[in-house]
Amino acid sequence: MGGVTSSDAAPATPPRPELLADCGSCFGLCCVALPFAKSHDFAANKNAGTPCRNLQEDFRCGIHARLRDEGYPGCTVFDCFGAGQKVSQVTFEGVSWRERPKSARAMYEVFPVMRQLHELLWYLSDVLELPRAKPVHRDARRARTDIERLTRAGAQELLAADVPAIRADVNALLLKASELERAAVPGRKKNHRGADLVGARLGKADLRGACLRGALLVAADLTDADLRSADLIGADLRDARIEDADLTGALFLTQAQLNAARGNAATRIPPGLARPAHWSA
């Protein structure tokens, strides 16, 4: 659906290239395997396993440069974390669902599993870059090694994997890493974990070191808010206003979250992430 390689931007020197979407090495899996419904995010309905009407014969998007203008902003904020090319080139050894139709169903089923595993690899890599999370670095490395090994297994082993259990184990590490890192932020930290903050007025709010894990911040006003070292894993930032906000050192923030938000040239973002092209000047 575009991923972080969309026109919304990608870092000039991207970190962790194996965890970044490479649409040129993928068989358009996000454009085929996943469903979407006609809405603000998508201009039409599409069933799982049905190719998007904009998917071309070379597996590229025919409206890639115009996704937002054509009514597909949802595609610009989807990130497979490199799962698409891993399934296409490793799991199915470079043979597409068009070349081998009998493999299509298994390929479509493996893709969302691989995406979850790659997302966990991304967050574990984040943990290993947090100096204050050193007490959990050893366990994080072990978990990353185990998951990397699983991502190179065959389709049947991937489909049999207990992904919820793997996610639970990794989440415990992420929580501990977050606590260790945010503990260095002075003062009392706000806890908005899983909170419904849709449309909330949080302009200029002091959210340094806050826990915003899984918070619904859709269309929230975070203009000029201080989000330094805040934990934003899983936070829904669709249409959230983050103009002039400071997200320096924000924990577990992804490019897809930035792409979904509305920022400007003054929004401060962590190194390694790119300023989306659709943000205001």
Summarize the topology.
Layout (H helix, E strand, L loop, with lengths): L72 H4 L6 H9 L12 H24 L9 H15 L3 H6 L2 H20 L72 H6 L21
Helix pairs in contact: 2-3, 3-4, 3-6
What does this protein structure show overall?
The structure is a single chain. This protein is mainly α and 281 residues long. The chain is built from seven helices and no strands.
Fraction of residues in β-strands: under 5%
Using the CA coordinates, give the radius of gyration: 19 Å
Q: Summarize the helix and strand pattern as letters.
A: HHHHHHH
Helix content: 25-40%
The stretches of 5 or more residues where confidence is low (pLDDT under 50) are: 2-14
Classification by helices and strands = mainly alpha
Q: Shape, please? A: globular
Report the span from N to C terminus: 26 Å
What's the main sheet like?
none
DSSP summary, beta strand count:
0
Number of helical segments with 4 or more residues = 7
User: Mean pLDDT, rounded to whole units?
Assistant: 93
Could you give a short description of this structure?
This protein has 281 residues and is mainly alpha-helical.
Features:
281 residues; mainly alpha; 7 helices; 30% helix; 0% strand; globular; disordered N terminus
